[in-house]
Design goal:
By secondary structure, the protein is α/β, with parallel strands linked by helices. The protein is 39% helix and 26% strand.
Amino acid sequence: MRKFLPFLIIGLAFFASCSSGENTAERMEKHGNAFVMDYYSEETTPDNLEALLASEISKGNQPVLFFTAAWCGPCRKFKSFLPTPEMNEALKGSTLIVIDTDRDKNAQRLNARYGIRSIPTFIRVDKDGNVQEEMIGGKWGRRPAADQVAKVMKEFVAAG
């Protein structure tokens, strides 16, 4: 029994952190002027994502989908810049919806819906989930500074 106790404790802690009482686990964080929303669900479908997009547009926010994965170096670099003042200004008036293709159980459906061929991919969408513009990869170079990434993202968001 003692051998299994640590595993039981870890398992219970993991289960408690994963269960939120809702089918869709959403976490919204305000980073300066922008909102960043993690969207992970066992039941993520194009329909419930489109409802989220319409809701954000009705609030006056420009939704940007960010397809990411834990193994993606440029994705990790991008995420590290989110709390910076440069990124706060660049993402002003937008909602970055983070879709982790490793964690979302239905990522294949969303990948197919949006034609994801590479990670990272950023997609600016309208209220119906239609693609307005797509940016594949990190267009900011191999060793970017926060201001370089912010400049690219500001142009991407503003084009909408």
